[in-house]
């Protein structure tokens, strides 16, 4: 059995399309949250993701789509992107977001795993390669499943702590480690492997030009486009520049 593991698409349909084509022989999938926001191809991403069969859980950006009041404190340029995505998202898309499961323990193709988006309010903002063990175990939320899968930090890494293997498959749609790649992972015959695939960024860039609410913020639009092309989706800053220098994806 082959299990596709994806996370953090953030409205990048081209990246998701490349992953699904590369792993078209997967038997089932695990999605760890953050599907459509804040990306310019939210609707296209939804159309692809709704056809993915497997176990799909909710991320913080999915919750923010369903509760837009949660973005009230965002900087105005980021709120402009979210507002455009929200205003143009179809009703069936919101139904899909409401169908995403909360994190927890699941059995997927005979493998026991704990699925979590990767942020623990009040305890852990990002689970990163240099996060101490005692903080990283918070992602498991007390689960004893042998595999703990999470996203949110957009960095591919894995670590064994006791009897558990903690795995971040990386981000499909918003790399932060300086590479224009869609990152994900697969289980094959019970073993996990990190993987990456190239994708064509041009449709995403064209879609960003059509986000009308960003006409007021042209410099920010160009910053977002540069972030995709350089592989620094939220800017070339720490801690992601450090991980890029260390070879992470």
Description of the structure:
- The chain has 249 residues and is α/β, with parallel strands linked by helices.
- It has one domain (2-245): Purple Acid Phosphatase, chain A, domain 2 (4-Layer Sandwich).
- The chain is built from 9 helices and 10 strands.
- The strands form 2 sheets. It has a 5-stranded mixed beta sheet with strand order 3-2-1-9-10. It has a 5-stranded mixed beta sheet with strand order 4-5-6-8-7, with no helix packed on it.
- Strand 9 and strand 10 form a beta hairpin.
- Helix 1 runs parallel beside helix 2.
- The chain is globular and about 50 Å long.
Helical percentage: 25-40%
Strand order of the largest sheet: 3-2-1-9-10
**What is the residue-averaged pLDDT?**
97
Distance between the termini: 25 Å
CATH top level assignment: Alpha Beta
**CATH topology descriptor:** Purple Acid Phosphatase, chain A, domain 2
Helices and strands, in order, run as EHEHEHHHEEHEEEEEHHH
CATH architecture: 4-Layer Sandwich
Query: What fraction strand?
Result: 15-25%
Per DSSP, the total helix count is: 9
* Class per helix and strand makeup: alpha/beta
Low-confidence parts = none
Shape: globular
